[in-house]
């Protein structure tokens, strides 16, 4: 039966992880994966999460099946977070939100639904983008192409190229946009540039699919969410995937969501019914624990305040590390201006280093980033930063 099965290529990032684990260099630093670590290099377990879990343990509940679209209190909390509790779209009932298995699950449910809705559509993702965007939409049956985004020569965004590519897209094309904290580059477009993107999406009848995997990691929860409000104000029907993997440090619980903004309540209920078909025929219904934890935190004012504080601390620490990296590289003798690192936002930095330099960083210094030059600045800390700066200085010299 399996004699003709070919070996699938290894996931490049997970492969990097294995290489890191096997590395015996005592100074090794893993900047490969997109995970936030605290200043002690540890994966945080947020206090708000622990408090919610403790309350759940004190009052254990049986684990029946959840509704297909997940915990109602969770879906409502997601709507409030993404669109604003008092926003017209939410109060009028025209948002269909379903709990999903991580942000990846939200993207996948949206992709499968879109394929049924508009099988001929193409999908555009940013060049470059999170690796899985292409794979998820291709596996849903779409042809996936990219729009220009990163301008390597200028270490910036090729915004004119992006707009030209969106303008050239056929009506109905699904455009996957990073709502904030672009992965992998760390470069986000400005508010004025978002307005321009929205103008084109509207004029060309494109379908915006906003991937919000880092709400709160950029400038703040409301600040990062503001882009969603812009699309709503433009009267667009949009898709938004949400991930709490990073913002709650709940990677393994797989907590995410998909929200679809319809034109009215009746349309939203039809959309919701179709999202449920996608889920039902895929994994039936979502798991209980992670969603219950996030709902408990978001719906309790005290825990919510604690979450905002802890999320804020993660955000600030990343920014501090960016500054320390710029300063440290300069102190280590790097001549070129590396200040672009502090204009980037979120967990990642496209360092501008070549594949050869990244390979040298790994093999000679035990500093692991991807071959594209992406480094996870959220894994830097006061203990490893010096070694990282000294190592980079050596490979760029
Ligand atoms: N979108 C982007 C841009 C991401 O970076 C990630 C996580 N690396 C995801 C989606 C998926 O999130 P999750 O782990 O919650 O599935």
From TrEMBL:
- Which keywords does UniProt give here? Aminotransferase, Pyridoxal phosphate, Transferase
Q: Summarize subunit and interaction data from the UniProt record for this chain.
A: Homodimer.
* Gene3D superfamilies hit by this protein: Aspartate Aminotransferase, domain 1, Type I PLP-dependent aspartate aminotransferase-like (Major domain)
Instruction: Name one molecular function that GO assigns to this entry.
Output: transaminase activity
Annotated protein name in UniProt = Aminotransferase
**What Pfam family is a match for this entry?**
Aminotran_1_2
Which family is it part of?
Answer: Belongs to the class-I pyridoxal-phosphate-dependent aminotransferase family.
Aminotransferase class I/classII large domain residues: 27-392
Tell me the PROSITE patterns matching this sequence.
AA_TRANSFER_CLASS_1
Keyword Transferase among record annotations? yes
Report the cofactors: pyridoxal 5'-phosphate
The Enzyme Commission number assigned here is: 2.6.1.-
CDD domains according to UniProt: AAT_like
Q: InterPro entries annotated for this entry?
A: Aminotransferase_I/II_large (IPR004839), Asp_trans (IPR000796), NHTrfase_class1_PyrdxlP-BS (IPR004838), PyrdxlP-dep_Trfase (IPR015424), PyrdxlP-dep_Trfase_major (IPR015421), PyrdxlP-dep_Trfase_small (IPR015422)
Supply the enzyme class, top level: transferase
């Amino acid at each position: 039966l399996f004699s003709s099965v070919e070996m699938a290529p290894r996931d490049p990032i997970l492969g990097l992880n294995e290489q890191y684990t096997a590395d015996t260099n005592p100074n090794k630093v893993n900047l490969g994966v997109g995970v936030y670590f605290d200043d002690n290099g540890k994966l945080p377990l947020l206090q708000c999460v622990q408090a919610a879990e403790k309350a759940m343990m004190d009052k254990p509940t049986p684990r029946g099946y959840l509704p297909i679209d997940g915990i109602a209190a969770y879906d409502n909390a997601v709507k409030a977070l993404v669109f604003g509790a008092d926003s017209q779209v939410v109060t009028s009932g025209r948002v269909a939100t379903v709990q999903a298995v991580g942000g990846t699950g939200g993207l996948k449910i949206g992709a499968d639904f879109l394929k049924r809705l508009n099988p001929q559509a193409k999908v555009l993702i940013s060049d470059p983008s999170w690796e899985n965007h292409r794979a998820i939409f291709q596996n849903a049956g779409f042809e996936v192409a990219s729009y220009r985004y990163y301008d390597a020569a200028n270490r910036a965004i090729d915004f004119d190229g992006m707009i030209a590519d969106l303008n050239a897209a056929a009506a109905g094309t699904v455009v996957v946009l990073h709502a904030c904290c672009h992965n992998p580059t760390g470069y986000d477009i400005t508010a004025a540039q978002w307005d321009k993107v929205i103008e084109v999406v509207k004029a060309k009848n494109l379908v915006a699919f906003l991937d919000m995997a880092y709400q709160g990691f950029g400038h703040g929860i409301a600040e990062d969410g503001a882009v969603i409000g812009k699309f709503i104000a433009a009267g667009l029907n949009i898709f938004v995937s949400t991930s709490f993997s990073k913002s709650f440090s709940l990677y393994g619980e797989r907590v995410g969501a998909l929200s679809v903004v319809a034109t009215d309540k009746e349309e939203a209920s039809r959309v919701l019914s179709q999202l449920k078909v996608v889920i039902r025929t895929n994994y039936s219904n979502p798991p209980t624990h992670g969603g219950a934890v996030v709902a408990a935190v978001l719906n309790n004012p005290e825990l919510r305040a604690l979450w905002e504080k802890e999320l804020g601390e993660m955000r600030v620490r990343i920014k501090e590390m960016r500054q320390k990296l710029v300063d440290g590289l300069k102190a280590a003798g790097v001549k070129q201006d590396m200040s672009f690192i502090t204009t980037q936002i979120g967990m990642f930095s496209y360092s501008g280093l070549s594949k050869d330099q990244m390979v040298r960083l790994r093999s000679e210094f035990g500093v692991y980033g991807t071959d594209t030059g992406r480094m996870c600045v959220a894994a830097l800390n006061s203990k490893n930063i010096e070694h990282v700066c000294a190592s980079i200085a050596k490979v760029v010299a």
